Amino acid sequence: MSDLSSLSAAITSLEQGDVILYPTEAVYGLGCDPDNQQAVERLLSIKQRPVEKGLILIADNYGQLLKYVDDAKLPMDKRADIFSSWPGALTWVMPAAKSTPKWLTGQFDTIAVRVTNHPTVKRLCQQFGKPLVSTSANLTGQATVTSIVEAQQQFAEQVSFYVDEPLGGNTQPSTIKDAMTGNVFRG
Known about the structure:
It comes from Pseudoalteromonas haloplanktis. With 187 residues, the protein is of the alpha/beta class.
């Protein structure tokens, strides 16, 4: 995706409500437009993931996440931990804005969000102008794909665009922490 035409093709896929595959800090992710219910439902169907589990949003900056997060509910004493960890591979579960759709939050009144430091994802979010849904590229309960070839074999035409750029080098998916309590959901 190092050239502009590839970036443009990935953005076009997102704008059309399609699902793309892209590299993140540690694993390949499946992503789509978080505001497009049909796109999110398609992603959940591809992954065989129940909507009740909720999804992660990945962004270039915190401003892109403000539409989905109830920022007023974040205590001042928690903000330093959150904002000092970004950009990076730390996902925070925060209070969701009342307007955040259930197809993103699932059964929860929270939303999992991350400001990434992965250059490819940053460029995608900058060009798209908002965050992406970000979930590991695998069928629920199975191992994550480790290459573009493996992803294409597993997902074929279900994924409209494959962003063929390197992973970020982390060995584990992002840590997920509760912004209110600090409890670790995934370490």
